[in-house]
Design brief:
single chain, about 290 residues, alpha/beta, TIM Barrel, 8-stranded parallel beta barrel, two-stranded antiparallel ribbon, about 15% strand, globular
Length: about 290
């Protein structure tokens, strides 16, 4: 089981060249090391394992397929394929063996309104999807979402399209809420995300869909310690979850062996994060300083 005290599921993120130790495994074509990393995440409670081998997936698809088969030799949890290319996703889905995951479906990570061609694979293959709520198409142009209304409308439009046009079950849809760094958030992006989570969670037509996100961005470029001496970045992740999980946020793209637990109301980082969410502009930057200044 996961070490999280929250009622959440974790998509293990470590099979990704963004981690230096994992990149070394890929560079050395260390299949046994990659398998050991998969086993460690599964034993720590990961519900899925995200698989991302970087740009090599485009130039060497057989390497991608080899990695998938090797992982499935040692773990029975389903996989999530993280690449914005239909060609790569098709290689992944072809290599994936549902029987080795107890019949569980893989996840295609991720689709957006301007990258909807990934859904052309649905029918020949069955899978769950991660749907990005951070981007929309307007007049044929992809645009980033910044407001609660934009995030909710994009999530609603995409989720209903998946259910109505493709017959997907709500349980097979994960809406990525794109948790952003607070260090330069002068436009209230964190506030919009939390508000949109509340709104999506209360939308009866979206009942049963999952909301998720990667939390590692939230503490980018902040000092390691808060004013009370605690791990600031991890405490920030827990502060976000303390607010978001009761609203319906139920899945993390993260490291399974990190311990996530609700923070008490009087916790310094939770109080400071709540204050930060109320600010914009230069006031938001001043609020950020309070995370590590008494």
């Amino acid at each position: 089981m996961s070490t999280s005290a929250f009622p959440i599921r974790i998509i293990g993120e470590r099979i990704n060249p963004g981690f230096k130790s994992t990149k070394a495994l890929f560079d050395n074509e260390d299949i046994a090391g990659i398998q050991a990393l998969a086993v460690r995440q599964a034993e720590a409670g990961a519900a899925w394992l995200n698989v991302n081998i970087g740009a090599r997936a485009l130039t060497d698809p057989e390497w991608m397929a080899r990695i998938i088969r090797a992982i499935q030799e040692v773990v029975s949890v389903p996989l999530s394929f993280d690449f914005p290319s239909r060609k790569v996703q098709e290689v992944c889905l072809r290599a994936y063996d549902p029987a080795k995951a107890g019949g569980q479906l893989p996840i295609v990570n991720s689709i957006t309104e301007h990258r909807w061609d990934l859904m052309d694979l649905h029918g020949e293959y069955r899978f769950k999807v991660i749907l990005m709520a951070s981007e929309r198409v307007e007049d044929g142009v992809a645009k980033g979402n910044k407001t609660e209304d934009e995030i909710h409308a994009t999530a609603r439009r995409g989720a209903l399209r998946l259910m109505n046009d493709y017959g997907m079950a709500a349980d097979d849809i994960f809406i990525d809420m794109s948790v952003s760094a607070i260090i330069a958030d002068t436009e209230g992006l964190n506030r919009s995300t939390v508000s949109a989570i509340r709104r999506i969670g209360a939308d009866p037509e979206l009942h049963g869909v999952h909301m998720m996100g990667g939390l590692s961005n939230i503490g980018q470029q902040l000092p390691p310690k808060a004013v009370d001496g605690s791990d600031l970045k991890h405490a920030l992740e827990c502060a976000f979850l303390t607010l978001a999980v009761p609203l319906g946020f139920d899945t993390i793209l993260g490291t399974p062996w990190r311990e996530y637990a609700p923070l008490p109301d009087d916790h310094y980082v939770l109080q400071t994060y709540r204050n930060f969410l109320e600010q914009t502009g230069s006031n938001a930057l001043r609020a950020v300083r309070k995370f590590y200044r008494a």
